[in-house]
Write a structure and sequence with these properties.
By secondary structure, the protein is an alpha/beta fold. The chain has four domains: 2-47; 61-168, Sandwich (Immunoglobulin-like), CATH 2.60.40.10; 171-195 and 243-446, von Willebrand factor, type A domain (Rossmann fold, 3-Layer(aba) Sandwich); 202-240, no CATH class. Helix content is 39%, strand content 27%. The protein has helices at residues 2-6, 11-29, 34-56, 171-182, 220-230, 266-283, 309-318, 329-339, 355-371, 382-389, 395-420, 433-446; strands at residues 7-9, 64-69, 73-75, 80-88, 94-100, 112-117, 122-129, 135-139, 142-147, 153-159, 163-168, 202-208, 235-240, 246-252, 260-261, 264-265, 287-293, 297-304, 345-349, 373-379, 424-428. The strands form six sheets. It has a six-stranded mixed β-sheet, with helices on both faces. Helix 4 packs parallel to helix 6 (266-283). 28% of the residues are buried.
Length: 450
């Protein structure tokens, strides 16, 4: 049974059989050709037996060695590398076809690769997968079909069945921002250089004046004391960035975050941005926390910056589930007031399509902004923007563009109305969410707003 399960027929064999059928039909009309066709068919049967012997004379592990290399975790929304290693242990050149049984979530049936391997040759086949949902993904077997030089039959080698891989929020994007921040190259991903305005209020030390220091920071009392004891020398007050400030990402898991863009929901874009922003905040010595909510409060991770806190944030974001019900902002306000006592920066990831939808939640937003520094982040409809950029060719398109202009105008009105009550906003396209959020956070740090 193992032999027959591993035996497959190549396309070349079916083609030759078709030719023999035509030859036998021709020999029926011209009997003189019948003996020649019979001899050729017997030779063909012998070649099939020879091909079978070449492929199956070795044990399963001594023909084609195969190994698939998959990361322990996949990054949601990113291209993740997958590698399949092949080694030809036959004594002859072998053509191989590789079919990888990838998880059903990708809905792909084109993961087929072909290669030609010389004896003892090793080959690495690399491709990429882009998951769009968090959760567990199950990889099936790697099927390798080997053909001898005759190319009549195939032998299947099936390895690595049942590998389970978890898809986490975009940790590849987080590492990219972390690396660029460490090397001062954040401008490569759209993060602007922010000029610091004024001075931080957190005192560090009194030190001697150096060329280029701001003369407004001269400490005249310390200067006079030093002049009396060690000679004339100017002393200045040195300040450092304020640290250990609470930064919370409030993630709306309600119905408004269900809209898809490039395969990911707005919720997953918000989760990926929250992961990157939390990591940047920890690098800036601030404390990062997470609060999720929809029709009720989900999970709350208090702001902290102890060792291992980033891993706790990653695990919390990975396990977020929702039914995309109507959001309850009243419960959000009650939870923030109860659990977040210290004034903090609150980054609220949500979405408002109309001014009336925002006005229904405005009383709760104003109360949050009264006790904390609130930044509301919502999304631009990129499909509408593409529609508005195209010229209208008929009356129907004019009507659609008019409706689109109305919705786009309402988005800008939301920004203006929130600004009237001192609420910071970001209106962004989903693909620019992370860069724009990090930009705004760094701007607020530079301006001493938090």
């Amino acid at each position: 049974m193992t032999f027959f399960r591993s035996l497959f027929v190549a396309t070349r064999l079916w083609f030759i059989l078709t030719v023999f059928v035509l030859l036998f039909i021709t020999a029926y009309a011209f009997p003189i050709l019948f003996p020649l066709v019979q001899v050729a068919f017997v030779v063909f049967i012998i070649l099939i037996g020879l091909d079978s012997w070449l492929l199956f004379r070795t044990k399963a592990g001594n023909g084609i060695f195969t190994r698939r290399e998959v990361p322990d975790r996949l990054s949601n929304g990113d291209e993740n590398p997958i590698t399949i290693y092949l080694e030809n242990r036959y004594s002859f050149r072998t053509d191989v076809e590789v079919i990888d049984e990838i998880p059903f979530q990708f809905q792909r049936r084109d993961v087929l690769f072909r290669a030609r391997l010389n004896p003892r040759e090793t080959r690495a086949i690399r491709y990429e997968l882009r998951p769009t949902r968090r959760g567990e993904y199950s990889f099936g077997a790697v099927n390798v079909f080997a053909l001898s030089p005759l190319g009549l039959l195939k032998r299947r080698y099936q390895v690595e069945q049942g590998k389970m891989v978890a898809v986490y929020p975009s940790f590849l994007q987080m590492r990219q921002y972390e690396l660029l921040a460490a090397t001062n190259r954040l401008t490569e991903v759209g993060v602007k250089r922010i000029r610091r305005i004024g001075h931080s209020m957190e005192f560090e030390q009194v030190r001697p004046y150096a060329t280029g220091d701001d003369v407004r920071t001269i400490n005249w009392k310390a200067t006079s004391r030093r002049s009396d004891s060690q000679g004339a020398a100017l002393m200045i007050n040195a300040y450092q960035d304020e640290r250990s400030q609470p930064v919370y990402c409030l993630i709306d898991k309600g119905r408004v975050m269900q809209s898809p863009f490039d395969g990911l929901t707005l919720l997953d874009y918000a989760i990926n941005a929250s992961l990157v922003l939390s990591n940047i905040a920890l690098m800036k010595q601030d404390r990062a926390g997470i609060l999720t909510f929809s029709d009720h409060i989900g999970q709350l991770l208090p702001a902290d910056r102890r060792t291992g806190h980033m891993l706790r944030i990653l695990e919390l974001l990975y396990r977020q589930k929702t039914r995309f019900l109507e959001t309850n902002y009243e419960s959000l306000y009650a939870s923030v007031r109860t659990h977040i006592r210290q004034r903090s920066l609150l980054l609220l990831f949500t979405n408002f399509e109309t001014v009336s939808a925002m006005q229904r939640q405005l009383p709760y937003l104003r109360r949050l902004a009264k006790d904390h520094l609130l930044l509301v982040i919502f999304f631009e409809n990129t499909e509408l923007r593409n529609l508005l950029e195209q010229p209208a060719a008929d009356t129907e398109q004019i009507y659609l563009k008019t409706i689109g202009e109305k919705f786009t105008f309402e988005k800008r009105q939301i920004v203006k109305e929130l600004a009237q009550f001192g609420i910071q906003t970001i209106l962004t396209a989903p693909q620019n969410l992370t860069a724009n959020t990090v930009n705004k956070y760094l701007e607020m740090k530079a301006r001493g707003m938090i």
